[in-house]
Design a protein that fits this description.
The structure is a homodimer of 133-residue chains. Helices cover 47% and strands 17% of the residues of chain A. By secondary structure, chain A is of the alpha/beta class. The first copy, chain A, is globular, with a radius of gyration of 13 Å. Chains A, B: Residues 3-133 form the PTS EIIA type-4 domain.
Chain lengths: 133, 133
């Protein structure tokens, strides 16, 4: 079982595709990242079925962290979690943190640990200062 | 003189292009948004000359708010501000807040006021909860 999967849920597919690309540039293939932004057909919005597909793509991960940009992305993510089986559900955490900075920091941290508390503690620090790069 | 200009500085042009599109979908043409992500030739990174062009495109604005994704985007933005004339420099504020959620909330607020303190106060609230949409 691989470590931590990171799922990106924005209202814009461009944002999550760009963010995935940016994170992979930093982490190589060490972290599993899924871009689940926009609607099923690439328009602005969010899609529970699309997020569900990403959750299932991370089914081999020990834990799954979901980063959202705003309210209805969170709602779609909650719906997606409700729709997958209970074993997968238990792995999922919707993270309270900014999508770009949070997913970036979490991915860097996920390279060195699969301890979710330790990863989330790094995300929490973003309330004090921006990530360095 | 128009109100507040919002400049988006991420390491990824896809992120800032997607974010600009998302914000314009919500605000129509009421807010001036500049996408200044990536390098001059669209690679991952940040570019002071590119940010400088965006600052100059907002020269008619009363104030300019710059949203960055991480440390070196902030450095490039500071360099860009140093390179423009002093009248434009005085209008610029690099915002301490997350790029996607911060620029979104600021743009929505900038539709109803050009008072920067009031806009920044909305961005500050993001430390407590995600924006609704």
């Amino acid at each position: 079982m691989s470590g931590v999967g990171i799922i990106l849920v924005s209202h814009s597919k461009k944002i999550t595709d760009g963010l995935k690309e940016l994170i992979l540039e930093m982490t190589g293939d060490n972290v599993i990242i899924e871009s689940a932004g926009g609607t099923d057909d690439g328009r602005l919005g969010s899609s529970a079925p699309l997020i569900m597909e990403s959750l299932e793509a991370c089914s081999e991960c020990k834990r799954i962290l979901i980063f959202c940009d705003m309210g209805s992305s969170i709602l779609s993510s909650e719906t997606a979690i409700d729709l997958v089986d209970s074993e997968l559900q238990e792995k999922c955490t919707i993270v309270d943190g900014p999508i770009v900075e949070g997913a970036f920091v979490a991915s860097v941290q996920a390279q060195i640990t699969d301890d979710v508390d330790s990863i989330l503690s790094e995300v929490e620090k973003l309330k004090e200062s921006a990530p360095t790069l």
